[in-house]
Amino acid sequence: MALLQIRDLCIDYRTTAGTARAVDKLSLDIEEGEYLGLVGESGCGKSTIAKAVLGILPRNGAVAEGDILFRGRSLPHSSLQELNRLRWRDIAMVPQSAMNGFDPVYTIEAQINEAIDTHVSWSREQKRKRIDELFAFVGLERGRAHDFPHQFSGGMRQRAMIAMAMALDPGFIVADEPTTGLDVIVQDQILHRIKEIHTRFGKTMLLITHDMAVVAENCDRIAVMYAGKLVEHGAHNVFETPFHPYTMGLCNAFPDLADRGRELISIPKAPPNLLTPPVGCRFADRCPFAAARCRAEAPALVEVGPGHVAACHFIDRAAEFRMKARDIGTWQGAAAAA
Amino acid sequence: MHAWRTFVLRRLALLLFVIVSILTMMFFLFKLLPGDPTSVFVDSNFPDDMVQRQKALWGLDAPIWVQYLRYMGNMLTFDFGTSFFQMMPVRDIVVEKLLHTASMIVPAVIISVALGATLGAWLGWRRGTRREGAAVVTLLTLRSVPSFFAGIMVLMIFSYWLGWFPPGGMVSVGGAGDSFWETVLTIDFLHHLALPCLVLVSREITSPALLLRSTMLEVKGSDFLDVLRAKGLPERRIVVHATRNALLPLVTDVAVMMGFLFQGQVLLEIIFAWPGVGRELVTALNDLDYPVAQACFFVMALIILITNFIADILYSVIDPRVAYD
């Protein structure tokens, strides 16, 4: 049984303009010890999934249908007390680096201690030793634990966040865009730490990002989301031989060290409005290969290889699409045609 | 820590500068006041040399800068002279009246801040409910009622109609103890305190409540609350975190409130016949009792300055982000 099973999950946001379905009938498994990267554009629903797993959806958001099972136990159907027992002990998070994840009026150490004290009763000595270990692991000076969050740089804060997430040795860690807004070198250091959690301690990880290159470099498996739907899911073959035109587009948009001469191509136009999603394939409007069928009928996820699924009507033409997708004219043509 | 000490010292220096400025302004203001203080004591029909003798006795014949220096020295050592009318040291009078005012204001402030902050935090946390809307309207109404009107209404209802509380004064006739504390720590005093305190609280509760409600709304959008929730903290602890952050601006508010209450309770003290410093000031000005009036002004200004100073220092302690430069 997978550690985390997401089953036909639908998440709605009530807005003044109507109800927006941010995640639509999404199913996804994360196996024990797996490092999964969930990629997609802003607003595709990837952070919403992270929030739903942790039970911290905003007030206007709710799981409308489906389920999230952690070790077979439903998270959305748990009471707050049951959820609070799982939180941080079994499921911890590294929040978006752009977020102010620490309470500004308490020291870093006080906040890590608070996480520990909420779940276990350790002596002061035990807690101190634990913070010694954690700070050594993330590469922070031990003396700085007494500092307040505002005395830390963005990168240091994120290291401290990783330390706090590790405090109770949880089995599953969700990192929601942990490096947005940090400079490239710090970004790399942080991602390296997070990967180490996985490689050294064998933790199951979910990394949410919009950066294809980050996932390619760090994760075992990758799930691509578009407009609330899962469009492709698999191991490294997702980059090597993508079957969904959106994944092909995403791969084009990031530089490839092996192919320095390649031009970066962005996908024209914006994702659909989730208040009134299109009937057919959600990507049809931006897809250079879209046919009449794509606008009428939503494609289902089909197996395209071992442990590799994609949701496209034309998976049998994927090889041809991959060739054409490398040409910038293909994408500009799609923009002009619509 | 060193930076903090410099910060405190600089604030202290500034405080001293402001005190000296206020005293200087007061010196010249009282010189400009119409009516010669000697006229209260010396009838205009008396011979001129008697007037001169009286002036010499009070040092009013000395050059102005000598008078100024003497005045400064006296004020800064809290030597306010003798009252023209009560023939006792002004310091004793002012201290007594100040304690009376404090005995009304301090309980009212404590109640207002405790209740108001709790109410405000709750309102902010429960934003958008019907109860919250009703509470905000009530608070705004209470805030808009002038204290003389509220005072008279409260007197009419609870004292005149219902007869539950005495109509004024601090204690019943003959109820005063030998010392301040003996007077204040009696049921009789609390009985007299109830109505003025009620009027004060009904007004002063609105500021911390509305302030905390709005700061709570700001804090509620903070990202760190999500992390606290994900940490598995019970709701109660999360509200504590949010409130702790929302409380910061309240410190300044309370300090300013305290200062203003000490000077602004003239109306309430008159309505409830409360022998406080505000009423004393009005009486002293009417009687041209300059030493008392001067001392009252000075002490009120001093209280505002000191409460603000305390707020600054306190703020730097409770909010670690305050920079000391």
From TrEMBL, chain A:
It is a peripheral membrane protein. SUPFAM superfamilies: P-loop containing nucleoside triphosphate hydrolases. InterPro entries: AAA+_ATPase, ABC_Ni/Peptide_Import, ABC_transporter-like_ATP-bd, ABC_transporter-like_CS, Oligopep_ABC_C, P-loop_NTPase. It is found in: Cell inner membrane. The keyword Thylakoid does not apply. Residues 4-252 form the ABC transporter domain. This is ABC transporter ATP-binding protein. It comes from Neoroseomonas terrae.
From TrEMBL, chain B:
The keyword Cell membrane applies. Keywords: Cell membrane, Membrane, Transmembrane, Transmembrane helix, Transport. The chain crosses the membrane at residues 12-33, 104-125, 137-163, 183-201, 246-272, 292-311. Pfam families: BPD_transp_1 (PF00528), BPD_transp_1_N (PF19300). It is found in: Cell membrane. It is a multi-pass membrane protein. It comes from the Bacteria. Residues 98-311 form the ABC transmembrane type-1 domain. Belongs to the binding-protein-dependent transport system permease family. This is ABC transporter permease. It comes from Neoroseomonas terrae.
